[in-house]
Automatic annotation (TrEMBL):
GO terms for cellular component: chromaffin granule membrane; lysosomal membrane. This is Transmembrane ascorbate-dependent reductase CYB561. Keywords: Cytoplasmic vesicle, Electron transport, Heme, Iron, Membrane, Metal-binding, Translocase, Transmembrane, Transmembrane helix, Transport. It is found in: Cytoplasmic vesicle, Secretory vesicle, Chromaffin granule membrane. It comes from the Eukaryota. The keyword Cell inner membrane does not apply. Residues 20-204 form the Cytochrome b561 domain. SMART domains: B561.
């Protein structure tokens, strides 16, 4: 008989917390899509709208789906470990693929426009978050899904896996906020350039 993902009883308030987190995640995805559609012209793989693929994919992949993957072991406490492992891994696979599409979109857009890559704090934090996420997934697959790792090795690594998973998720959220701030500053810079507001001493 397969062991279960969690032996402790499910806290009574947990379903409400999970529902609230899903609501917040869907609102984040929806508002990002609405912002891109209403104020940035929409989404397309060709032309100037290709850049808009990047923020939407990153919010869906590295925030919404990654967040759901982190919740799997809390939500499905009464399922078998194998089931929760597979679901946890699949959510991370989907998150990685969608985030990779967003990353390719922005680099391809920069290449077509002749723009420099990795010119801001947001871009460096984004590359760091993506690389760490990929390494975390590979190491997690090697320890927990690949049948070769011993039980003792898995037990020793599990706390580090949980810690780095939460850290990478928080880094992704912070990076997304940096990107939104960067987009806002670029927009304000274009609007204020006519009266030289961007070069005002108050902003230095």
């Amino acid at each position: 008989m397969e062991s279960h993902a969690g032996l402790a009883a499910t806290p009574r308030a947990l379903p409400y917390y999970v529902a609230f987190s899903q609501l917040l995640g869907l609102i984040a995805v929806a508002t990002t899509g609405a912002w891109l559609g209403l104020y940035r012209g929409g989404i397309a793989w060709q032309g100037v709208l290709q850049f808009n693929v990047h923020p939407l994919c990153m919010v869906i992949g590295l925030i919404f789906l990654q967040g759901d993957a982190l919740l799997v072991y809390r939500v499905f406490r009464n399922e078998t470990k194998r089931t929760t492992k597979v679901l946890h891994g699949l959510l991370h696979v989907f998150a990685f693929i969608i985030a990779l599409v967003g990353l390719v979109a922005v680099f391809d857009y920069h290449r077509k426009k002749g723009y420099a890559d990795l010119y801001s704090l947001h871009s460096w934090c984004g590359i760091l978050a993506f690389v760490l996420y990929f390494v975390q997934w590979l190491v997690g697959f090697g320890f927990f899904l690949f049948p070769g790792a011993s039980f003792s090795l898995r037990s020793r690594y599990r706390p580090q896996h949980i810690f780095f998973g939460a850290t990478i998720f928080l880094l992704a959220v912070g990076t997304a906020l940096l990107g939104l701030k960067e987009a806002l500053l670029f927009k304000l810079g274009r609007l204020g350039r006519s009266w030289n507001w961007v070069n005002s001493p108050q902003l230095c």
